[in-house]
Amino acid sequence: MWRPPGSKRVALPVANWPTAAVAGGSRWFAPAQLGPVRLEERTWIPAMVPWRATEAGEVTDAVLDWYGRFAEGQPGAIVVEATGIRDVNSGPLLRIGTDRYLDGLKRLVERVRTASAGRTRLLIQLIDFLAIRRRPPAEKYLQRFLELREPHRAAATAVGADPDDDQAVRAALLALPDEQLPRYLNDRELEALRFGYRERVTDTHLPHIADLPERLPELFASAAARAAQAGFDGVELHYAHAYTMASMLSGTNHRNDGYGGSVEGRLRLPLEVLAASRAAVPRHVAVGCRFLADECIDGGYGVEDAERYAVAFARAGIHFLSLSRGGKFDDAKQPKIGWAAYPYTGRSGYECMPTVYSDERGPFGRNVAAAAAIRRAVRGDGHDVPIIVSGGITTFEQAEAILEHGHADIVGAARQSLADPDWFQKIREGRGDQIRRCEFTNYCEGLDQMHKQVTCKLWDRKDLANAKLLSHDGRRRLTAPRDP
Ligand SMILES: Cc1cc2nc3c(=O)[nH]c(=O)nc-3n(C[C@H](O)[C@H](O)[C@H](O)COP(=O)(O)O)c2cc1C
Ligand code: SF4
């Protein structure tokens, strides 16, 4: 886990929980409009992948329980985890790439409706991602995966071996000390060796990457249509973090086919995907996106470009804008051999899911100033599209202040809702002092990194005997216990 230089453990913000009457009259618990969809209140649970689908990406009982448990707290909206829009294997992450997923997704919608007594609106996050491989052992990479090129052959020549003998070239490369490899391997080859091979949207020499603008509008639109058919209230196009659409928006997108380079070029495919998705769903379904208020990487975009993106999305008629920050592969730590790089291990990852081991700014509400600037730009251009902010929000007062100052319109909380899915209900009832407060030390994120079923350290060992479902190793409960 990356920590800011000189970081210290900071205390959780003091919480003065409101009475039921104060909560009832508050901004956070007041209704909001998400395009055609009315939210009963401005409380929001952003997408969180829990690793509970089948290997084929289908809804399981554990998926139903996970979302049903959040729904019991009756937030204004829940966004279902990043759900793959293609019909390709991607492990136990939900998928929506063909009609065979419809039945399971309908059951999920039904479960949330019932568990929330119809109060919670349900959205689903639609994601596309490019190939990423695990970090290989050096021997395997140099002897099998590396496609030999002329510069590699010089390594054999340097040790008096035959440069035309592939085996001799590979053996010469393998014998080299790590620091000498850059003489013969280019940056991408070094990355594949040290981090694992990873595709980029700028790899336009690969036909399936060059074709992204051809393929993605239709893939997102079909997924959005399926989500509507399954009964979701809305879709959230995943334009954030380390995945395809965020990479199209990225300051590092230098594609020269009209879909990169300038702000307009980087926006082109996201706008085309938005238009196709909007056209594919009935009018009562909300279509919004999640994107980064700041990429927080060298060469990435900052809040000024984010303002321009937000205005462009608003002009295109988007129904909501949910803001995250960071979470990129570009500054991810080197994974262990056999592991894949994880985009939340560098500085940008810290900005996405900050912990209490923090600099003087602290982990709480680090995205709020950027959200406020983006909201100002959108309002300044004459649009009332709601802005959703999240990141280190864990008290009623934080949320109220954000709304009161007009920094955002809806306030999301991911980890605090995981720690206590009943917390909204407790605030509503004036029982805030009973809230199990997130400690922001990212045990849950560590599980996500290992692709293990995500749980919270504050409850996953409690009352195992009465837990409905346990983790694969039988040691952890999969949903939060109910208060006695
Ligand atoms: C276990 C876990 C899984 C996550 N999965 C997603 C995801 O699928 N899509 C997404 O946009 N963000 C994802 N996030 C990021 C959260 O939505 C949120 O932006 C982040 O945790 C910061 O908000 P918080 O401080 O309220 O937790 C995930 C976070 C966690 C902890
Ligand atoms: S595991 Fe830690 S960071 Fe994650 S929700 Fe629980 S207390 Fe918060």
Commentary on this structure:
It is a single chain. The protein has 484 residues and is of the alpha/beta class. It folds into 2 domains: 8-132 and 202-466, Aldolase class I (TIM Barrel), CATH 3.20.20.70; 138-194, no CATH class. The strands form 3 sheets. An 8-stranded parallel beta barrel has the order 4-5-6-7-8-9-11-12, surrounded by 7 helices. The chain has helices at 20-24, 61-72, 102-115, 138-145, 150-158, 166-175, 187-194, 207-210, 212-230, 244-249, 263-280, 303-315, 347-352, 368-380, 396-404, 415-419, 423-428, 443-449; strands spanning 8-9, 32-34, 37-39, 43-45, 77-84, 121-127, 234-239, 286-292, 321-324, 357-358, 387-389, 410-412. Helix content is 36%, strand content 11%. The mean pLDDT is 97. Helix 5 crosses helix 6 (166-175) and helix 12 packs across helix 14. The chain is built from 18 helices and 12 strands. Flavin mononucleotide (FMN) is lined by residues 46-49, 81-82, 125, 240, 290, 324, 352-353, 390-393, 413-416, 444-445, 448, 454.
Could you tell me the CATH topology label of the largest domain: TIM Barrel
Name every ligand kind in the structure.
Answer: flavin mononucleotide, iron/sulfur cluster
Poorly predicted tracts of residues: none
Mean pLDDT, rounded to whole units?
97
| Number of structural units classed as domains | 2
Let me know the number of strands: 12
N- and C-termini, Cα separation: 35 Å
Structural class: alpha/beta
Radius of gyration: 23 Å
Given the C-alpha coordinates, what overall shape results? globular
**Fraction of residues in β-strands:** 5-15%
Order of helices and strands: EHEEEHEHEHHHHHHEHHEHEHEHEHEHHH
Strand order of the largest sheet: 4-5-6-7-8-9-11-12
Q: How many helical stretches?
A: 18
The CATH architecture of the largest domain comes to Alpha-Beta Barrel
The CATH class of the largest domain is identified as Alpha Beta
Helix content: 25-40%
Specify the biggest β-sheet: 8 strands, parallel, barrel
CATH H-level superfamily title of the largest domain: Aldolase class I
